[in-house]
Amino acid sequence: xxxxxxxxxxxxxxxxxxxxxxxxxxxxxxxxxxRGTSATSSGYSTVDRFVCTFSGHDEAPxxxxxxxxxxxxxVYEKGFRNSFHITNGNQTSxxxxxxxxxxxxxxxxxxxxxxxxxxxxxxxxxxxxFYCKSSVAQNFxxxxxxxxxxxxxxxxxxxxxxxxxxxxxxxxxxxxxxxxIDDNNDIGLTIEIIMFRGTxxxxxxxxxxxWNTYSSSARTPDSTSTWYTTDDATFEITGVQLEVGSxxxxxxxxxxxxxxLRCARYFQQFGG
Length: 272
Fold this sequence. Notes:
The protein is mainly β. The chain is 12% helix and 33% strand. It has helices spanning 3-17, 73-76, 109-113, 256-264, and strands at 38-39, 51-55, 62-67, 82-87, 100-108, 125-134, 138-146, 152-161, 167-174, 187-197, 211-213, 234-244. The longest helix has 15 residues, at 3-17. It is globular.
């Protein structure tokens, strides 16, 4: 092996396995679920640090910590054993303007401020990556939202997903001079993956892959309603990672204890 090849190999190993604590997301492999493994209530109800919010429904979705098997080849062979899983209810009245189902992960401002991301610079990047699977073939939207100063919104799309197929989504996001992040324990950055949002919070004019001033009535382009109007449609996600830089490295697996202790900062379930 040439010296150049050796350096390239060392760089590859370093980039994918030696950068500990690079994932700003807590419990991204969905291993910790202190509240339980299944629920039909909106909010934090199963997997720690991931909240599913829904309203306007005719029948409540079921939220679960789902056990993956070897048939989930694309993620199972990469070490994932759990996903955050949503089973839609039967929305008999269709997709209303105030209806919504979405997943959020909220990161403390101080963790973003001290991450090494120069969030006010367009030449400094963070990269979001995750695996997702839908039983319905369609495009889904997601977004990032900053809370401090003048709130900013960054909308993106998954692209058309093939039904019942795990797909890795990667988005590299540049900083912006309008972003403010305080050094405190309030919410600094929210990651949102959307199954459906009604038109009272969406607008066809919203631009993708760009920071814009947050508007509660224009968070993403209008959602496709196919998933939401399909009885018992499913959507699941795992391997959520947010890291500084423009490259999506391999997912940073942690021990159950490490994930649990990070989750316990926000919630602890006591027995007895």
